[in-house]
Amino acid sequence: MIKVLIAEDQALVRGALVALLNLEFDIEVVAQAANGREAVDLVKTHEIDVLLTDIEMPMMTGLELIEEAKKYKPDVKTVVITTFARAGYIKRALVAGVRGVLLKDCPSEQLAAALRQIMQGKKVIDPELAIQALDDADPLSDKERKLLRLAGEGKKTAEIATELFLSEGTVRNYLSEAIAKLNATNRIDAARIARQKGWL
């Protein structure tokens, strides 16, 4: 049996994925999580072959979850399922070592077939997403990305500095760099552009 952990914040989508995959003769959903943090705890306590995760989730993104999960289960196969065909997401997912990237509207039999192929050591990328990934190059560093995400949430320079243990001057410098790289008018505009591209 292929043992799967699903991380998806939308209850309806999560329930549908669980139900559809449990209909397969060789796939069993052993755990499900509504956010990345919850999923990390489940990774630690469950024997799983595949971590199937959304990208945009509260508390921890799917890509951050994958990085954390690998610390506890380095051999787990990771698959991203997303609504967003954004080049930045796909590139970052591939860099993070995911074995599959699929769109949420793919047929359930396609998802099941992809999980079987991934268990055989293959990579499965939706063709539409693969084409997207060849487009825009992400100019942001990890630090700039983290700061922009917090700025986009409306946090002030002092709050960001405290949260990330940086000086306010350093925060301003990183944000200025990010704004310049994205040709944005301010930090909120930069966060919006980066989010649209899938870079946050």
UniProtKB/TrEMBL annotation:
Pfam families: GerE, Response_reg. The modification 4-aspartylphosphate is found at residue 54. It comes from the Bacteria. SUPFAM superfamilies: C-terminal effector domain of the bipartite response regulators (SSF46894), CheY-like (SSF52172). InterPro entries: CheY-like_superfamily, Sig_transdc_resp-reg_C-effctor, Sig_transdc_resp-reg_receiver, Tscrpt_reg_LuxR_C, WalR-like. Residues 133-198 form the HTH luxR-type domain. Keywords: DNA-binding, Phosphoprotein. Residues 3-119 form the Response regulatory domain. Transmembrane segments: none annotated. This is Response regulator transcription factor. It comes from Catenovulum sediminis.
